[in-house]
Design brief:
The chain is mostly beta strands. It contains no helices and ten strands. The N and C termini lie far apart (about 40 Å).
Length: about 140
């Protein structure tokens, strides 16, 4: 009998079970963006999905291009000197999650690769889906 392969990231662990999001009502979405000079914001780098009980699930990418899904509250923004700054704030229409605030998560589906672990997560809401991916090391959010 062959041992069962783990879907967790070798560097960052398994994080929280994506299935724990099913049934949660999305109350707020917070994101972080990189600002450099007069360039427009890059990102989001991170997204926090906050449910109606105040539980925050953090979505971001790892250094090995995995998709990290962990329980943690949003951090504050910070200045990186010559490399710009990172701002953290509630999202407006910058992510596809904005269309689903106030809705329940009906289902989740994950994708994994053997050496990286989780690389994508798709959340289904009553009015549509949002796909979260680690794409070449960047967090990519798509209305599906």
């Amino acid at each position: 009998m062959e041992p069962e392969k783990s879907n967790e990231c070798p560097l960052h662990g398994a994080g929280v079970s994506a299935q724990s999001l099913v049934g949660c009502r999305l109350a707020e979405v917070v994101g972080s963006w990189h600002l450099f000079g007069s360039d427009g914001p890059v990102g989001p780098l991170d997204v926090w999905l906050i449910d109606d009980r105040g539980v925050a699930i953090h979505l971001t990418t790892g250094s090995d291009w995995c998709l990290i899904v962990e329980a943690s509250m949003p951090h504050v923004g910070y200045d990186m000197g010559d490399w710009g700054r990172v701002t953290v704030r509630a999202i407006g229409a910058e992510t596809p999650f904005a269309d689903h605030v106030g809705e329940d998560v009906l289902a989740v589906q994950e994708e994994h690769t053997p050496n990286t672990g989780r690389v994508a997560l798709e959340l289904t809401f009553p009015t549509g889906r949002v796909r979260c991916e680690s794409w070449a090391g960047d967090l990519r959010l798509i209305s599906a």
